[in-house]
Amino acid sequence: MPKMITGKKTQRYSVEFKVKAVEWSYQTHRSVKGVAEALDIHPFMLSRWRKEYREGKFAMKRVKKAPAGAKELMKERDEINRLKRRVSELQEENDILKKSTFSGRGTTEAFRFVWKHRGEHGVKALCRHLSISRSGYYAWASRKPSQRAAENAELLLKVRRVYNDSKGRYGSPRVYQALRREGEVVGENRVARLMREWGMKARVVRVYRRMTKLREDLKALPNHRLGADKPIAVNQHWSSDVTYIKLGKKYVFLAVVLDLYSRRIISWRLGENLSADFAKATLREAFISRKPAPDLLFHTDRGIEYRAHKTQALLNQHRVRHSMNRPGQCTDNAEVESFFKTLKGELLHATSFVTMRQLRKHISNYIERFYNSLRLHSSLGYRTPIEFEGIN
């Protein structure tokens, strides 16, 4: 095959130049690519020279003079690489600092922190930031777990199971009570510590309610709950309210009726419009399902949907005493407000729904299969509403 003639003169490099290039490429803080760029040669060529050196085709020699300009360029590149490494170290230290919450709790807690985050930052960086020795960490990691540590590991599995079964809705008090119901002998602080260490937090959200302007014609409506005794059986005191839920770009409304004795949701309704018919339909379902005796105390806020003639006619038909909040005192209906806060924190927070059908299905599942049947209520001695009604 004839030799290709391109007219371009091939660059020839002296043995001394090759030796210096290979010397630089073998320095730990430099790369083949960086050295090749500084010397204006192709990285493949430098790699070939390195291979020739390993095969003994030319010996390493010291030269007094480096190629012109290359030494200054390499120093500049070394400084840039040093600064990049320092920036990377500072960013990593900042990430570690955000996660480290055990300050002042001893080396064992520091070792646990390293063990937990070693995959993200590496043992060396974590130990340097926490001012602990790597040898000490490795000795701790290879040590056989103590009996207490083994018990904590076994307990953690049980805590995680209860937490996951509640879909992340339980905090440490309810997890502790659930474990006690299973016969587990454990301290509440120990459960709280394990959950805190492993990042298990209850799903909660703050719910803010806009206060409506007070009107003179509302001040005459009475609050019968203030002077009434607490209910001692079901169907003595009910409470009701309406909240709004975001669905896509609009808001829909959820109305509930709650038995104040057992905190059980006895009826609920989801709708696109807030009206007297909407509140009346929710209340009618409660009357059908529970069939309360006359003189039931029914408490609500001061919404127009509850003061409407249609709603009042239904209440009068069943001989119900209607009680309302005092002006500006939304805490008079605290039980239902608490339910809405719980619902939004445990089900709706950080979750978006697209259709009414989808939202209705999730709310139904939450109320019927979890809130009334499985959720432990602190006000009921950590029992479920259905269980509380059955016992009493």
TrEMBL record:
Residues 227-392 form the Integrase catalytic domain. Keywords: Coiled coil. Residues 70-100 form a coiled coil. It holds the Pfam family HTH_21. InterPro entries: HTH-like_dom, Integrase_cat-core, Transpos_IS3, Transposase_8, Transposase_IS3/IS150/IS904. PANTHER family: TRANSPOSASE INSF FOR INSERTION SEQUENCE IS3B-RELATED, TRANSPOSASE INSO FOR INSERTION SEQUENCE ELEMENT IS911B-RELATED. This is IS3 family transposase. It comes from Marinobacter salexigens.
